[in-house]
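Q: What would this chain look like folded?
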Amino acid sequence: MDHSAAVGAVRRHFDRLGEQGQGHPDAEASDRVSREVHRRFLRRFVPRGARVLEIGAGGNRFTTELAARGCRVVVTDPSSARLAAHERRVRGTPAERSVLRREVLDATDVSRYADGEFDAVLAYGGPLSSIRGCAAGALRGLLRLVAPDGVVVASAPSLLGSWRQQPPGLDGRPEPADRRYRWSEVVALVHEAGGELVDGSASNWASAGDPGVLAHLAADRDRWRRFLDHEVAACSEPGARDGGTHILFAARPA
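A: My prediction, written as C-alpha cells:
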C-alpha cells in the first residue's frame, strides 16, 4: 500500500470510530501513569505562553495541559471526526480560549506552515508510529516548523516494552500495524531527520507490572503521589528507556 492510500485508510478508520474510539483517557491506573509521565515531560520542554502545533490531538489528551500553561495551540488530527470530538470535549472549558484553530492534517505534509512558525510541536501518541517508511521525513518537516530554540516533543510505542508486557506470538494475535521503536532507533531517527536529541524517557516502566498492585496504590493518594514521583524518575534513566510501553523524546533543530 502506498503512502497516500495508507493515510486514507487511517483517516477513514478514525472517522468511523469518531469519539467512540477515544475511550476515557484515565480509565485504568496504568493510563493515569502514562498521562502523568507524558504531562511532566511536556512541562519540561514546552515553555509557558508558547505557540504550539499539536499533532494528532484526538479527543483532547493534552490540549488542556497546554492551555493551562498559557500556550496558543493549533490543534490538528488526520480525522475530521476526531477533531469534532475534540471540539465537543473542549468547548465550554477555559482551554477553548487557547485553541487558535482546528485543522485536518497528515503529519507527513506540513507544507502549509512557515519555517519557524511555532515555538514547539507536540506529537504524542501515534503520529510517528503510524507512518511507515517516511518517519524521518515527517520528523524533518516538524523540526522545520519550530524556531531555532524551539523543540519537537513526541512519543511512540516501545518495541521491547511491548514485548515485556506481552511476549510476541504467545497469544496468537497478529503483529501490530503501527511502527514500534527501540530507543536506539529513536536516536537514529532524530539524527536522520537532521535534529539534535535533547532528552528521552520511557513511559510506564514499573507500572507495566501487576495491574492489581497498581490499582491498590492508586487508591491511596499519598502512596500514589510518591509512586508517580519514583516512576517518573525511573523512566528518565537511560537504562529504562526501552522498558516501558512508550518512548518519549525531545528534539530540536540542529
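The first strand starts at residue 51 and ends at 54.
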